[in-house]
Structures are given as C-alpha cells and as structure tokens.
Amino acid sequence: MSLQNEKIDAVECSNTVSDPSVWFGATGGIILFIVSIIFIVGGIGLGLGSPFRLGTGAFPFITGMILGALSLAICFYELRGDGLASTPDWIGFCAICSALAVFALTAEKLGLVPAAFLTVFVASLPDRSLSLVGKIILGSCVGAVCWILFIELLNLPFKPFVGL
Amino acid sequence: MEILANFAQGLSIVLQPENLMYCFIGVFLGTFIGVLPGIGSLAAIAMILPLSFYLDPTSALVMIAGVYYGAEYGGSIASILMNIPGTPAASITCIDGYPLAKKGRAGVALFSTAIASFGGGMIGMLVMAVLAPSLAQLALSFGPPDYFAVILLGLVAASAVSNGGALKGITMVVLGLMLGSIGIDLTTGDQRFTMGIPELRDGIHIVIVAMGLFGVSELIASIRDNKKGSATQSIDYNDFYPSKSEWKSLFSPILRGGAIGSFFGALPGTGQTIAAAIAYAVEKRISPQKKKFGTGVLPAVAVPEAANNSATQTAFIPTLTLGVPGSPPMALVIGALMIHGITPGPRLLTEAPDMFWGLIASFLIGNIMLLILNIPLIGIWVRLLQIPYKYMYPTIIVLICMGVYSLNNNVFDIWLTLIIGAIGYVMRLYKFEPAPLLIGFVLGPLMEEHLRRSMLLSRGDAMVFFERPISATLIAITVGILAFTAYKSISNYRRFKTSSSQLTK
C-alpha cells in the first residue's frame, strides 16, 4: 500500500516540478514574509512593553516573528512544487469581484433596486448560456425581491431608488 | 435526573413560538444552502450571521446551530443525486450514495441518510448533555495560563490536519491571529494597523472575514464546476422505504457512526469530515456487507451521515464549555456569541443555563424538523437542484452584499469583503486553506488577553505555562502534535527527494 503511494507521489511530483506555479507558490511565501516584517516593525513601533506588562505591539511582534519563520519554510518547501489546487477561473473571479464593486459603488448613489439589478447583471456576464434578456429579467426579479424582502418586510435602512 | 429536568427546561424554551420559528428558519436555510453544491456550512453560517444580530442570543444560537446541522443534511442530497458533495463531509456519502442512485435506489438512499443523520444527531445530543456539564466543571478551575494553553492546542490541532498540509495550515492560523489584532487594543486603547482608516478602528468584522473567505471565494470556485449539469434523477416514491432486513442492517451502523462521530466532533481540529471518513473506514472493516462497500449499500451511506451529524452536535462541547472552537464553523458561533456580549466558557452553563439547555433541546426539535423536511418534502430539494446554477449565484452575490452592508450601513465593508474574497480565492488556488485563518482570527484577541493576564499574574515569568499541571499537559500535547507533523512532512520531503532523483537517473 505504502509502496503504491510512493509511486503515485513520485509521478505527481515529476509532473508538477516543471510547473511555473512552483514559483508562484514561493511568491506566496515572500508575500507572507513581507507581511511578517510589517507586523514586526509595526509591533516594535507600537511598543513591546515588558514581559510583566506586555505592550500594544507585543502580540503583533510575536506573531510576526512566527509568521516570518513559517514564510521562509514555505518558500523552501514550495520549491518542491505542490502545484495548483485547480485551474484558476479568472473570468468568474473578475465577474464576482466586479459585481461586488458595482454594488459598493451604486448601493448608496442609485438605491437598492438598481444596485441589485446591476450586481446580478455583472455577475452573470460570463455565463453565455443565459441570454441578455434572461440576464435583465433575472436582475429585475432579484431587485424586486430585495425591495420586498429587505425594505418592506425587514425594514432595513435602504432606499429602493435614489434621486427619483 | 438533573439532566432530564434541565432538558425539560430547555425544551420549554425552544418550544416558544419565536424560537421554534428561528429553529425552523435555521434548518431550512441550512438545508437550502447545503443542497447547493460547492457552498458549505461555513458560507451558510456567514450569510445568516448578520440576521442573527437582530435576535436575542438564545434564538440566534438556535438558528445558527440549525443552519450548521441543516447544511449537513442538505449536503448529502446533492452527493447522492449528482455525485457532487454539497458539503465536504458529504463527499464520503458520495462513495456509496451515487452508485445507489444509479441503481435507481436514490429514494432509499435519501431516506436512510435522513434516518442516519437523525440517529447520529440524537447520539451527539446525548453525549453533549452528559459530558458538557462535567467538562465545564473541570474548566472552572482553569486560570489564564491554562486557557492560553487550551487555545494554543486548539489552534495547532485545527491547522495540523488542514487539507493543504500542516505548514500552510499553521501559517494560516498565525495570519488569522495577526488579522485579529487589527483595530483598537482593548488594554491600552492604542490603534493597531488601522492605517488611519476609521472603519478599521473596531477591527475587521467577523462576518466580513467569513463572507469574503467562504462566501465570495467559494462562489467563484463553484461557478465553473456547476455548469456541468443538474440532477436528472427522479425519485420513485414507491421505492422510498427500506425493506425490513435493510432496516435491521442500518441499526448498528448508525450507532457505531454516531459514537465515532461524537468522539471526533468533540476533539479540537477534527470535525465532521474526518469523523465521517473514519466511521466509513471502520465500518468497511467490520460490516457483514464489507465486500460490497463502494458499490452502493445502505450501511455505507448511513455510517458517514450518522458520524458527521453527531460530530456536528458534539462540536459544541468545547465551543461552549471552554470557549475554544473545535472547527471553523464553531469559530463563527463564538464570534456571533461575542457580538451578543457573551463570552463562551465554563461559566456559560451556570450563568446562561437557559441558553445552553435551550440549544441542546433545539437539537432534538431541529432534527425532527429536518426529518420532516428530508423525507416527505424531499421533492422540494430535488427540484431545487434542477434550478440551473446560473440563476443562483448572481442572487447569492446580492445576498452577500446585503448581509455585509447591513452590519454598519457602510459600503467600505463591501470593499473589504471584495479584497478578502479575492485574496481568499488566490489562497485556495495555492492550497492555503482559509478555514484555519478564521479560527486564528476569532481566537487571536482571546489568546492575547490570556497571554497578557498570565504574564501579569506571574510577574513576567514565562515559566508559568510549564509549571501549572493543566497548562503543562496541554502544551506537552501541543508540542507532541507539532513534532509529529514536522516529522511526517520532513519524511515526506525526503521521500520526494529520493523518488525524484531516481526518476531523473
């Protein structure tokens, strides 16, 4: 059983070793290392206090030190090539992020109903199986349901439309 | 007998119409989100949290718990009908659930999982009612160093078994601790890492972290996978009830699954997925039908379901008695309670017995509701699975935005969710599991507080952690876990090196 596992491991490793994502993995370690430096320096700046009376910066300083050590270990470890968990879906990623941004930009300026409509519309953009009319209908339905549910029933402090 | 009296008291609280309604909302929404593939109980709880802040603490806890175990019931539906686990723990159910569905026995499989989940839930509830009070009694003697050690053990245990490997898991926990230190330091009143942004003064809200890491990033990850198809299986209601001999074959697997699940649910860091996997492995060795496991037999679906549901209930034991969450969803429960001004710990049982026993009684009521939702009303969920995901995910995004916005009526929180969600998705790609980060985030402030208090009490002598018997034992266990995982990953690394050098030769 363990022999079999080893074989599988070896095959997997040989497949991923030349993968460019190896370097991305190490980049993750470097980013974490930078974060740890920020916390260590920031912690010292905030004041470490004494062992008796730990200061504001003591906990960030200690965790920063630990993260620094771990991030170096990750840089080293990642070079063996763990590979990606799945192929990234950047289109979906952009659609969802833009949808959130659209909601943030429009919720207070245009009101809840247009914001919900636009959010749904943007989020569903990458889906080709849903026609343009379908997207508009879906957006309108969600907008209407939000209006009824959140404003009329739950009384959240939202305006359905602004400037109308 | 005291337990019975307490339980009756709890029952009287849950049976109040208001709590009954929130319990139902919880289990219904939990099943709903659990059925949707790719979105697990964490995202479900994150979405319900903003709503729970408007309720009184007991109702809130009952509702959140309902979402949690409801999602486990729902998760099995998608795994049996579509071979896509609705929740991670349900992936074990797929192994035999989907072959059963292909044989045309989806109805029986769904019925058995509902019964098994109910049985497992009841076992978990009994274990909690018996064990929690004595554990709380023990924990009353804990001082700050002991708490620090418990939290340390919880954090290490939770990260050492993370999917992406122990090193990344522990890194995520530490990152969570650091994220948790953002905001005003409650001891000195100084601002930490707020970068002058007033919205960050109170720290990052737990809902934002959870929605970003689980809601947003799970949604991105599930868009593509869910285009593949929807459930086409129709359920034959004539073939819904197991035969007499099948009933008999289910009984002891449910008991065993429930017992194994209760044990692993209460341990910090293990949780339902491991409980279900171990219960399945054990059953595969001792079941009279063991040779047929994997081809679609009923005990093989019942065992993991009983285990994951009992683990779901016993996960509340360390959460409520020690204030240390055994699993990421429990970290959210602690976060929710703290927002209500309640610090979970040994005093919770004596100071808020109504809440504690109300919660336990709600397990009974909630599981009965789920039985009704999952057996006579199974058709609703099957139809829900037939709704194309393209209608679902844009709607969920709007719900996430609404939930986050309603925290402070501030769009800054939505931007923050966007950033955390984007980082969470990229982290997932590189196998950095976000779940340990959440545990670190919740426990960070508590850990810091106990560290400071311990140092103050010992007049700055760090040896205090090794001198008290409880904390010394806990730290020894923690070091043991760390040493074991380090040994394992180093030997894996060596093995990789030798095998890759052999390949290149």
TrEMBL record, chain A:
Record bears the keyword Ligase: no
Residue ranges of every copy of the DUF1468 domain listed in the record: 29-158
Q: Which residues cross the membrane?
A: 21-46, 58-79, 91-124, 136-158
Assigned keywords, A-Z: Membrane, Transmembrane, Transmembrane helix
Coiled-coil ranges from the UniProt annotation: none
Domain of life of the source: Bacteria
Presence of the UniProt keyword Protein transport in the record: no
InterPro entries listed in its UniProt record? DUF1468
| Listed name of the protein | DUF1468 domain-containing protein
Organism equals Marinomonas ushuaiensis DSM 15871
Automatic annotation (TrEMBL), chain B:
Q: Which positions, given as ranges, span the membrane?
A: 20-53, 107-132, 138-158, 165-184, 204-223, 320-343, 355-379, 414-430, 469-487
InterPro entries linked: DUF112_TM (IPR002823)
Asked if Translocase is a keyword of the record, the answer is no
Which region is the signal sequence?
Answer: none
> Which UniProt key words apply to this protein?
Membrane, Transmembrane, Transmembrane helix
User: What single Pfam family name could you report for this chain, choosing any that match?
Assistant: TctA
Stated name of the protein: DUF112 domain-containing protein
Q: In this protein, which residues make up the domain named DUF112?
A: 20-438
Superkingdom classification of source = Bacteria
